[in-house]
Amino acid sequence: MQPADLLIRSASAPNFVQRLVLWGGLGAGALALSSLAAFAQGHALMINVSPSLPYWAIWVTRGAPVHRGDIILFDPPTSPLLVKHFGAKPKPFGKRVSGVPGDIIAEQNRIYFVNGEAVAKAKLESRLGEPLALGPTGRVPKGCYFVTSEHKDGFDSR
Fold first, then answer.
1. How many angstroms separate the Cα of 58 from the Cα of each of 21, 40, 74, 75?
2. Which pLDDT tens digit goes with each residue over 50-93?
3. Is residue 54 situated within a structural domain?
4. Model pTM greater than 0.70?
5. Kind and range of the H or E run holding 111
6. Are residues 71 and 34 in the same domain?
7. Residue 63 CB contacts under 8 Å (≥ 6 apart), including other chains
8. Residue 79, SS3 per DSSP
9. How far apart are CA 100 and CA 139, in angstroms?
């Protein structure tokens, strides 16, 4: 009798099948976890608690091309107004892309236009009564975006 024959004969058939299924399941689980870890490096589900976006959850894909109308998450540039309202290290902002590189941003009577189309109106003052300066106008530079939100108090490019 060969040693391998002894091993197979010593295990009952149902017990052998159970072990085979268990090891196969463990292998499939390990493969799924490693695939999920790789997937998570480029994707995230963000929960929105801000009233400035109409959605409570946002699916984010890092490094994906950005198009007009997309919602993006970004770290806002530091300013005294930002620090006053959101602290020194605010959470990422989620905003809708209204202008992409090359678009022309114009402002008239606090209404912002992207390539001639009205996209947002800037308020005169913040919720706390602080005067608000107007945002940038001109051609959107490469690597930059003009972002807006549907909420009247949205802290965005306006």
1. 38, 14, 13, 16
2. 777 776 777 778 888 999 998 888 888 888 888 888 888 888 88
3. no
4. no
5. strand 111-114
6. no
7. 42
8. coil
9. 9
